[in-house]
Write a structure and sequence with these properties.
The complex is a heterodimer of chains A (172) and B (120). With 172 residues, chain A is of the alpha/beta class. Chain A has a 6-stranded mixed β-sheet with strand order 1-8-7-4-5-6. In chain A, strands 2-3 form a two-stranded antiparallel sheet. The chains are: A alpha/beta (172), B mainly alpha (120).
């Protein structure tokens, strides 16, 4: 009886091992970051660019309004590409575009906005990058859609025409 | 007298060293367990990328706010998910990872007991 069991056990173990490897063979090995959504926005207080004043998250983000938070920097090349799209989004009444200037210096940031236009209602200064980490960001550019103090959507990388349509659909 | 002088010098040197070594130890311990998400196979402690440097500053800030090591891990896990921790917790995605070694160990132990000890 015992001797009969052993071959079955070995076969069973092989089947389990096969199943595990077969499953992981089909998994993609390219890591795509988890976009955690429906998280509450962080509570922070930060300086504002161009206004020379301090503001807090509760002052910037009000309830029952759509906000788009865009993390950008003057040294970031893809930010240039998405800038026209942000400009067109800023004309939308239903959406308030907020900027976060990531690891930048004031002079360069200002000349960037003078050159390409300023789509942002307010710009949060993130001098050492900690503020963007509190938002759960990976780098620049990154865009969050916020409603009722919750992050409802997050885009890593520059926004393109396709995502623009998606954003317009969300805020409708 | 000379011995005493030498002793004092050595003592001072040793204590200064200790002060420096302990300065960032808590931060280093925490950042070694956090994955730098935009790097390839590096911890936040090892990396010098923009992301990692900001993480280090934020860890310092959280330590300053009085958060414990575990609370800091939970904080980052909420922001970035399980992947940021080098030591993943037990959940439905990782139960095999945690339980398989124990099962294999028990199975091997059972074979050894059966074939060597019980045979005698």
């Amino acid at each position: 009886m015992k001797k009969k069991l052993i071959p079955y056990l070995i076969i069973l173990i092989f089947i389990i091992i096969f199943a595990v490897f077969y499953k992981s063979l089909k998994d993609t090995n390219i890591y795509t970051p988890e976009t955690k959504i429906n998280n509450d926005i962080p509570i922070f207080s930060a300086d504002l660019l161009l206004l020379n004043e301090n503001s807090t998250s509760t002052e910037i983000f009000e309830f029952d309004k759509f906000y788009l938070l865009n993390i950008w920097a003057s040294w970031c090349v893809p930010c240039r590409d998405e800038h026209p799209i942000l400009m067109s989004l800023s004309k939308n009444d239903k959406l308030t575009v907020i900027g976060m200037n990531y690891k930048d210096n004031k002079k360069n940031a200002k000349s960037f906005l003078d050159e390409l236009g300023n789509p942002y209602e307010k710009i949060i200064v993130d001098k050492n990058g900690t503020n963007s980490i509190e938002w759960g960001a990976y780098g620049v550019p990154e865009t969050f859609i916020i409603y009722n103090n919750k992050i409802i959507k997050k885009y890593i990388g520059p926004i393109n025409q396709e995502l623009l349509k998606e954003i317009q659909k969300i805020i409708k | 007298m000379k011995i005493l002088k030498n002793f004092i010098i050595i003592f001072l040197l040793l204590t200064f060293n200790n002060l420096y070594a302990n300065e960032n130890s808590e931060r280093n311990e925490i950042t070694k367990n956090l994955r730098c998400l935009i790097c390839q196979g590096q911890s936040v402690y090892d990396s010098d990328s923009d992301f990692a440097n900001s993480m280090k500053i934020l860890v310092d800030k959280k330590i300053g706010e009085g958060l414990s090591e575990k609370e800091i891990y939970i904080y980052f896990k909420e922001k970035y998910g399980d992947w940021i921790l080098y030591d993943p917790g037990l959940n439905k995605n990782t139960y095999l990872l945690w339980l398989l070694p124990i099962l294999i160990f028990l199975f091997g132990g059972a074979i050894i007991v059966k074939s060597f000890i019980l045979k005698k």
